[in-house]
Amino acid sequence: xxxxxxxxxxxxxxxxxxxxxxxxxxxxxxxxxxxxxxxxxxxxxxxxxxxxxxxxxxxxxxxxxxxxxxxxxxxxxxxxxxxxxxxxxxxxxxxxxxxxxxxxxxxxxxxxxxxxxxxxxxxxxxxxxxxxxxxxxxxxxxxxxxxxxxxxxxxxxxxxxxxxxxxxxxxxxxxxxxxxxxxxxxxxxxxxxxxxxxxxxxxxxxxxxxxxxxxxxxxxxxxxxxxxx
Amino acid sequence: xxxxxxxxxxxxxxxxxxxxxxxxxxxxxxxxxxxxxxxxxxxxxxxxxxxxxxxxxxxxxxxxxxxxxxxxxxxxxxxxxxxxxxxxxxxxxxxxxxxxxxxxxxxxxxxxxxxxxxxxxxxxxxxxxxxxxxxxxxxxxxxxxxxxxxxxxxxxxxxxxxxxxxxxxxxxxxxxxxxxxxxxxxxxxxxxxxxxxxxxxxxxxxxxxxxxxxxxxxxxxxxxxxxxx
DNA sequence: GTGTCGCTTCGATGATCATCGAAGTATCGA
DNA sequence: TCGATACTTCGATGATCATCGAAGCGACAC
Lengths: 229, 229
Hints:
Low-confidence stretches of chain A: none
Radius of gyration of chain A: 18 Å
Shape of chain A: globular
Oligomer: homodimer
Number of domains of chain A: 2
Mean pLDDT of chain A: 89
Strand order of the largest sheet of chain A: 1-3-2
Distance between the termini of chain A: 51 Å
Largest sheet of chain A: 3 strands, antiparallel
Number of strands of chain A: 11
């Protein structure tokens, strides 16, 4: 008897549940009420959906008093969701229509690392500078990259998780950087206050100065693409 | 507006459709009647499901007279399905119950490359012999491996597809070998008659001599695991 | 030409399920 | 303690959809 993929897929296959799962792809734990708002459903409907997602292991619950925070149960589910996004994007002619779309396409969180145009530019810039060696499905930190990131404060963890991983970006159709390094970069830029998480979505909002500093740090050509594009 | 993953997931999320998609993971094109048998539904039900899968781009149709052959629309969908299998398997306590299960677990097609125990053994043997360098998410052909496989007749194609890719095996919870190399290995062993495709499932049936030859070729220790395990 | 086979379409049927408002419970803050 | 808030449970409702057999169409073989 093979694993029952229909069960898992059907859970993701409800529009409201899909919206909540996608919201959780921002990497933050969100309350039931926040998720209900994201999915534009009533709190009672959200409640029953969340119970269902929890029961089948897609999300985990952490209680804090009356607040109940939900998060994705792990990185493999996040990778699955992002792959679903990539395939769905490849199939559907998406036309950017609103400011939210632009923000998401420019810079957003793909669970714990940077995605969107800026994420792809980061990946490419690191490649150009020989700090990572990334081709097709393989992505490695080079000796030079190792030294540079150590200098910037990155400490590699001994873990099954790769240092670098190329993650296919659904909006750009090219790779952005995932793995320990991708995660550290996001943590670092948030800690420096270069950008903030958007409270309503997965997009990252860079301040003007923060964006300049980010691009300077990672060698991203500021004239290549700007936000007004 | 983000891509609508619910649509895609809901298509996979029907039990009958999931069974048919999984059957197509064997890499062969199958007729509507064969797929109806796989899913144990009536031909008319299969017909409407297949029309639906085709409409949303998951499968492609090739007509040959009155026979209509369906196949998965591409490798990225195959990878998604395999990922669904891996996550589903990790979540559900699966107990091997029948001969079909054993066959699938021992050697099966994961779209176009070998999976199951034998697939994992192949991957590990190639690593042990230094023919591929595979760790975590990265998998590369070594210089020695390149020479050895060239000697065996493998010709790398210039293509976006990686030579090697580690693909997580849902039944073994470890990596088997995908990519151009993984595909070539399957084509080669089928051409040599070492194994045949099972007509009812995705499993590969090795003849006794074929299995011995396969293990000898790729340096798989014949005493490590045998089929009677 | 005729009968068989592969497949689709049609229409009816029953099951499933997302949804909401109302009511209830637990937590929090003044 | 009390009112507000976060959240869950309940039950009713309407929509969706998988399913099948019957009927029909086109390809195939004799």
